[in-house]
Amino acid sequence: MASERTLFRRRAGVLAAASAALALAAPAAAAAGPPALVKSRPRGHDVSSHQEHVDWASARKTGARFVYVKATEATDYRNPYFDEQYNGAREAGLLRGAYHFALPDQSSGAAQAQFFVHDGGDWQADGWTLPPALDIEYNPYSKKQKCYGLSKAMMVRWIRDFSDEVKEETGRRPVIYTTTQWWKLCTGNSRAFSSSHALWIARHGTSGPGTLPGGWRYWTFWQYGTEGTLPGDQNLFNGSADRLRTFARGR
User: Is 46 a catalytic residue?
Assistant: First the structure.
């Protein structure tokens, strides 16, 4: 995933790269890539304004069972297609959740969490709404400031503040989307979140999710490619369809 306000659509390179929620996900198959896992895991995708008007019925027919929709970025950007995409996914029978693209150098974690929750990042235990997600990755606006100018300790505090505010407002901890490489570089491979936050690992290719960051033993979602049969980025859930529904309910 990436920022939408840049002139170039920066990914985190060719991405080299929890509590009861994490217990819902079975251990990762270490060497299995998408061709093997896709047959036994619910498929999903993530979209943003880049996808604009998504044909959700077609995505569902193609195999999509869940989607994450970009809602916000920093405290001054909201995906103009969010309502159409978010509601359209639900009407087509997909579980859907919202994600926030973090810019930690722009404002506090708490401020960005408030903006996110109030502009689409809420959660309810209806069995259709996935927990809010935090997209934290390389700075799309500065190649030199990959960690947004924050020290490792400051970055950990920023993520904790974001998480605490989301928990206060929604009752759930956010899923954390990141790469192993960025997490090591910018948080010092912090283990502060692995016991209480589901991991959405980004690593593109067919060789599997790879080494997980920060003490996480299991991945809950895996983004394995930017192109495929579904609109946007391609993802898998690490469990059965029933467990995906249970995860959405917060159990």
Answer: yes
Which homologous superfamily does the CATH classification assign to the domain defined by 19-249? Glycosidases (3.20.20.80)
Domain boundaries, the chain: 19-249
Catalytic residue among 73, 137, 165, 233: 137
Mean pLDDT confidence for 136-149: 93
Q: Does the active-site annotation cover 55?
A: no
Q: Is the pLDDT of residue 16 over 60?
A: no
- Which token pair is 52? 């604009």
Instruction: Kindly state the helix (H) or strand (E) to which residue 203 belongs, with its residue range.
Output: none
This prediction has a pTM of 0.89
pLDDT tens digits for range 199-244: 999 999 877 899 999 999 999 999 999 989 999 999 999 999 999 9
* Residue linked to tokens 């235990």: 125
135 is catalytic: yes
Q: How far apart are alpha carbons 215 and 18 in whole angstroms?
A: 10
